[in-house]
Amino acid sequence: MEETNEKGKELIENINAAETEEIIQHLNNPVTDLKPIVKKYLGEVKAVVTEGNRFFFGDGSARVEVRVVSDEIIRVRLAPHGVFLDDFSYAVPVVDQKVTTFKMEELDEYYAIATNTVTCKIRKADFLVSFTENQTQMVMSEDAFPMHWEENVEFGGYYVYATKKCQPEENFFGLGDKSGNMNLRGRHFQNWNTDAYSFGWDQDPLYRTIPFYTAVHDKAAYGIFFDNTFRSYFDFGREDNSKTSFWADGGELQYYYIHGPHLMDVVKRYQSLTGTHPMPPKWALGYHQCRWSYYPEKKVKEIADGFRSRNIPCDAIYLDIDYMDGYRCFTWNKSHFPDPKRMIKELANDGFKTVVMIDPGIKVDDNYWVFKEGKENNFFCRRSDDYFMEGHVWPGRCQFPDFTNPAVRDWWGGLYKELVDIGVAGVWNDMNEPAVFGSGTFPNDVRHNYDGYRGSHRKAHNVYGMQMVRSTYDGLKKLMRNKRPFTITRAGYSGMQRYGCVWTGDNVATWEHLKIGNIQCQRMSISGVPFCGTDIGGFSGEPDPELFTRWIQLGTFSPFMRAHSAGDTAEREPWSFGEPYTSINRTYIELRYRLMPYLYSVFWEHHRYGFPILRPLVMLEQENPSTSFRQDEFTFGDKILVCPVLEQGASSRVVYLPKGKWYNFWTHEVLGGESEHTIATPLDHMPLFVRAGSVIPEYPVMQYVGEKNIEEVLLNVYFADYEVNSFLYEDHGDTFAYEQDIYSEKKFMVKGTASSLSIEQTRDGLYTPNYELYNYNVVGLPFGVNKITVDDVDVTDYTLDERNCLRFKSNKNFTTIKIYN
Asked: Distance from the CA of 125 to the CA of which of 134, 365, 452, 699 falls in 20 to 30 A?
């Protein structure tokens, strides 16, 4: 290998000289003699250099870096003229992970870089790159053409391209914020964050850029993360059914191959690169009510009273842009809100958190303190000829902070001090694609600091919203002194989940949008952005009572549950349509609060272990070809399966249950998996199923999170004749103490036989909940009960109801419970 390295270095050192000579020759020729710019492809491999876990291959002009990131992740980078760009990414804070062993071998036809799990092969003759699973030798991803590029005469740099073979039965998923069917096969997409008001089915692009997709073929899965912030494109066999491609208008051809073999493995490993969502304050998982806009103060109080007087749980009320003075961020309209601190305190006394909107556009007004500070410190974006970037949004003529500048982010984060001081609990960053009236967004020539790596708006556009919410999150975290911030962003890029949650944008009150939202939230979850929801009821348009009620049902099992509507529509609170809709909506919102300990535990599984919160059927049964085309059903965590009603007037619907046994949540009927079932769906019924063997914790119904002290936790135990593990996670609910292990993670192992059931508990963490008792509801026992022991002590106080549900209690610290015939 030493000899190979020396030869490789000599050849690669000559690359730049050769390219420079070619450029000089072009410059010396008359313009009429210049050849048109064409795509250039990698040629024969002529040089190899090894530097630790990085391997450099050259064809005499271009260079390719193959970097072993972990046993299952390998990064590929292309430098068309041999010089790589600075290795910087907003998406991936730390590239290298734990690698056990790796090696490179030179064989007759190719070089092979192998870890314990996967091998990357670079074919010598034509530089084709492929990835093979070591155990089965299955080719998971294989170039159809060598990587290629095209010079960008206008802006400099290159258009960069990768084209891979698409297997006949291969299906594709992910890519974040996309409309239309879950399966991406046969479609073409563009990534360019866009204010897509009232978007439609298959409309593209939308608000966010997540250049990460997963693929399944021959029952195995892998992923590709194309970490490029420029306008990028993906084609999943639309142009040529045998090929899939991704390319960008600039930047570097840099992608990560992420190995499975299960979809769950791929997503978890992608999360290990880009990060997981921090634990949110528990109240953020409650029901939220929003409208453009609730004002003046009297109206806000009326909405709050509407919830409490009707006993409908709610944790947050939102103030849209009309709370501001002339839409100036960080100000208050004192005629609408004369004493915001008092109002926010009174809302808090009734259990409501106040969330406010902050946009990036800062009004050009020398009497406006935020504008003055930004101007004096040169914090606003400028164009190439040094004019300020100006555009019209809600306040009128505005300038825009450069959130890719660390100094600007620090300044912006500090601007929230007054809002925090008067009690604002959460911040909603909107219009940060960035959106500009008329032009749509910034011109290409706007300059950005890009954390010292400099770039135009072509490079920074897709990360602008992510860096805005990053600034907001970091600022709130400092100001709130160990309290968890709650932040929302409309736009973002891969990795934005480290800073905030999202909603699917300005949707429409139609049944089609109910279907779109269901798929979007699932897609976002398996694309690394788990804390996602829709505007329940639709932002624009008018839902009828049935549509709104079905949307509330779906929203109950969306990670982020918020109703929101435009100001020119009729109000749509849960009671707006009268009975029986008010009672049905109340029941489902109450169900959300009953299941709060389960929802919170699922969030912990995401944060700590990288599991997606919503899991489409293909993630549960990727070996079943039919699940690649099923998109209605999903699980919240791995225990509760949800099948929303998406058709107007539906009195029943077909539900597919994955393998295993499932309990109907409402009736306790046991149904077999790997089959379809027709389920009745009257208006008050959305099909829900619980995996056999699960332990589902419940709290008492509350009007807001933390309203009541928990005196005991109800554990619903669903019998199975095999072993199943479940988790219950608890902590303070609003601090970062969990980062110092101040949490409680309990594992329940349930195993049944024809005549017995055992429940074992193990505990981890340093947090001790205040309650002392578990109250058990054991469902589906196939035998009569004659004996119960808790840590070998008999339980005599127990009951069996008419549905053979067993009820008893125990101390929370038990180790083993046994139930006998």
From this structure: 134
